[in-house]
Amino acid sequence: MGTNETELREFMDSLKYEAYLITSDEINQLVQLPISKYYQTSHVFNVLFTKPNKMINQES
Fold first, then answer.
1. DSSP 8-state symbol, 39
2. CA distance 5 to 58
């Protein structure tokens, strides 16, 4: 498995997983991170990996 964000995300992408940034924004808690985009921050952040079409619709 990867030893940094790039390697981890490339590995998960090779297994056909999509990456989502988990945010504190109540309206948009999950933001898809395409393999070519990286989240730049000096803080720790969490991501969710899921297979395409496996996300549950979160609308009420």
1. -
2. 27
